[in-house]
């Protein structure tokens, strides 16, 4: 279930970045997959943040390309 949430978040952020820039890497319209619209991405609600001064919020990341590397302490 956690992996599906992560996949949805990554796909949602990718779609937002593509829509904001108006660019895509696909060359043929027929090669696009038909995916359901799952609505806006959920807010980031981490308790622990590394390498940032303050917690990140989606509103502050709007229009920026974001790479998310998620892992857990084991």
Topology:
Elements: H1 2-21, H2 58-61
Key traits:
0% strand, 2 helices, 74 residues, mainly alpha, globular
Helix-strand sequence: HH
Low-confidence stretches: none
Structural class: mainly alpha
Shape designation = globular
Fraction of residues in helices? 25-40%
Largest sheet: none
Let me know the average pLDDT. Answer: 76
Supply Rg.
14 Å
Query: Given the structure, what is the number of helices?
Result: 2
Query: What oligomeric assembly is this protein in?
Result: single chain
Amino- and carboxy-terminal Cα gap: 19 Å
What percentage of the residues does DSSP assign to strands (E)?
Answer: under 5%
Q: Count the beta strands.
A: 0
Task: Please tell me about this protein's structure.
- With 74 residues, the chain is an all-alpha fold.
- The chain has a domain at 1-23 and 60-74.
- It has two helices and no strands.
- It has helices spanning 2-21, 58-61.
- The mean pLDDT is 76.
Short structural summary:
The protein is mostly helical.
